[in-house]
Amino acid sequence: MKREKKEKAPKPKKEKAPKPKKEKKPKKGKKGAAPELENPEEGVVETGKKSKKKKLLIILLPVLVLAVGAAVFFFVVRPRLGGEKTEEPPPPPEPVELPLMYTMGETEVHALPVWGESTVYLEEQEVPLVENVEKEDTGDAETEDAETEEEPPVPTAVTYRYEGLSSPGTLASVYTTLMTLDDVGFSQVDEELTRIKEPEELAVEAGSVHLAKNAPEDGKAMSIQLEWTEEICTVTVDLVDGRVKNPPEPTSPMGPMGMSADQIIDYMQSLNPSVLGLEGSTMEGYDLLMQEGSVLIDGNPCVRVNAYRINSQTGTNEIGGNYFLSLDGTHLYRLDVASNSVTELDLPQ
Length: 349
Known about the structure:
Elements: H1 49-80, E1 101-104, E2 107-110, E3 119-123, H2 141-148, E4 158-163, H3 168-179, E5 187-188, E6 207-214, E7 220-228, E8 232-241, H4 261-270, E9 286-290, E10 295-297, E11 300-310, E12 317-326, E13 332-336, E14 341-345
């Protein structure tokens, strides 16, 4: 029997993996020519861009130099030449606690009576300028250096600025009244620390007042200066050189008490006739006769002086007026003979 040949099943073909493509190498360019490069998006410059970049750098180089030079001028050179400087504004001052007492040297006095309604700041005092006085050359360099390096005096005053007051002028007036009481002892004074006998009433809207009192320290006085507007009030306290003093006594044109008869007559002759209630422009048309003795009028010792007018028609003297002049020349009275009363007249200042 013939054996039948079994047909073999065909074997599956193995699939071959695809071979990776070989990258093409860039062709060598000709000498002197820039090679062409791929992938310009990855930061590689294409042919011909390199020379353009060099030209751009050459153009920008002078601009860069000018910019650096301008910066050096504005930020280094110009400030040294005294150019404009932009200074930052100083920070606002910090408020301080309301002072209850002011200190001047070894003494404390009551402060402005304010309770919780005001904000108080301290103000810096200006340093007084020291004038340079030219002195003769002594040849001693060390002495001259010591004189030129003299430090300016340090201010001792303290200034308080009160803000938020309802009526600074009224408060300053009340404080002035309290400080000028007899038991406190301050007085209103002028710039020379002379007491003001009849001070004017303080203004409410805006004004100033200077109070002072002699300090325990020799040659010193306690000074309080107040200045105010409708919004703020500043108080400057200090211990200053000098003493508080009374104003000088007014002096009479006639001189001190006990003047001579000639001085009395001369003074009466120097007055305008209108002061005495007489006619005429000068006293040359009147004869003056002083009587002996003196009388007291309002506590002032006075002498009597009679004024006679010469009658041009008769050539006789006619009484013009009878007067009493105090011996210190500060009071002048006219006598009414009929009623035996006197009236004080205004003397020229």
